[in-house]
Specification:
Layout lengths: L1 E7 L5 H12 L4 H4 L1 H8 L8 E8 L4 E11 L11 E9 L8 H13 L3 E5 L6 H6 L3 E4 L1 E6 L27 E5 L5 H12 L7 H9 L6 E8 L2 E13 L2 E11 L8 H11 L1 E9 L3 H6 L28 E6 L9 E2 L10
Parallel strand pairs: 4-5, 11-12
Antiparallel strand pairs: 1-2, 2-3, 3-4, 5-13, 6-13, 7-12, 8-9, 9-10, 10-11, 12-14
């Protein structure tokens, strides 16, 4: 006989959690190879671990982890944001020993204890998709598009681009400009904070600082998007290198997104200065029509076009990434989400 307990993980559980990931999720996962990544991803500054676990306690007192569900609240990077908006991450139960419903009980534990207004998950599998749908979650596929650098026409190495795909009549609008975020400019930071606070989901300069500017492994570029000199959005990207070539991967847009249909010129300038093959974006809630208007292309529209998603290691194929989300509030807590909102942009 045994008893199953659903609870939040504690500091003393870390080694057991990592062993569970290695044994039942993925051998030699980055969390196993570098526990610092695991700790950075799931441990709040106040010490709380953002992981729910299912633990089997046997009659002899021995305990065994049989399921885990990791989650990332936006408050992980700014405690003032709290647990109102949560993205789920690693979700695994031992099917050989878990009775039916344990995974669902872990999800309910998060909902009941933290009372979030929004829960989302990026990178869900076909196995869990029906579970989300049965619970009333919206499911779908993230949109991935790329703006190709014409300087590499006929010589793309990272993306696989059919001949003559890059023929765009898009207008280069000069109303949009990018300004590097100066963390010493207090007047600018106040505007950034006001903009982020009114965005959906709500973020802040502290979030930007802790999530991007002070990331321990990745170097992110943060730009203020100005439309006719007015601060409209915060744009975050990361440059990825592969065999001497580069791409710019947009991982977050905080604030407005209407400017995307006029973004061609600024992205061409950034690709030129970075010597990048293309700019890509993967998100839900962006205006795909506006992106295509400015010259972005989708692999769904062109046969043999490959915009890779995996770089560590590199996989030369289009990868479809599915999501699930649910709002428990009458207001629109999260109108769009991006690659970096969940765990899709971390060391692998």
């Amino acid at each position: 006989m045994s008893r199953i307990n659903i609870r939040f993980a504690e500091e003393s559980d870390q080694l057991r959690l990592i062993k569970f990931i290695n044994d039942y999720w993925k051998k030699d996962h980055i969390f196993v190879k570098d526990p610092n990544v695991f700790s950075w991803q799931y441990r709040n500054k106040d010490g709380r671990w953002n992981i729910v676990l299912a633990e089997n306690t046997y009659n002899n007192g021995e305990k065994s982890i049989i399921g885990i569900l990791g989650f990332i609240p936006l408050g992980r990077y700014d405690e003032n944001l709290g647990d109102d908006c949560i993205f789920l991450a690693v979700w695994k139960v031992r099917e050989d020993v878990c009775p039916p419903g344990i995974g669902l009980q872990m999800l309910k534990k998060i909902k009941k204890t933290l009372s979030p207004s929004f829960i989302g998950a990026i990178g869900i599998s076909d196995i869990v998709k029906p579970i989300y749908q049965a619970l009333g979650y919206q499911t779908g596929k993230l949109d991935q598009l790329a703006l190709l650098n014409p300087c590499f026409q006929g010589d793309y190495k990272i993306a696989k681009v059919p001949n003559k795909i890059y023929e765009s009549n898009s207008i280069c609008d000069s109303s949009v400009s990018l300004l590097e975020l100066d963390v010493k400019d207090k007047k600018l930071l106040k505007k950034v904070n006001t903009l982020a606070d009114s965005s959906s989901p709500t973020k802040s300069f502290s979030y930007i600082k802790n999530r991007y500017l002070e990331h321990p492994w990745y170097s992110y570029e943060v730009r203020c998007v100005l439309v006719n000199e007015t601060l409209t959005a915060i744009l975050v990207w990361r440059v990825v290198e592969l065999d001497g070539r580069r791409v710019i991967r947009i991982v977050d847009i905080i604030g407005g997104r209407d400017w995307l249909d006029s973004s061609r010129l600024v992205f061409l300038e950034e690709m030129t200065s970075t010597e990048a093959e293309y700019v890509d974006i993967m998100a839900s809630g962006v205006n795909v029509t506006a992106l295509k208007k400015t010259g972005f292309v989708s692999a769904q529209d062109y046969e043999n076009l490959v915009i890779p998603n995996y770089f560590s290691p590199y996989v030369e194929k289009n990868i479809e990434v599915y999501f699930a989300c649910n709002s428990f509030s009458s207001s629109d807590i999260c109108s769009a989400f991006f690659r970096a909102d969940s765990d899709q942009d971390r060391p692998n």
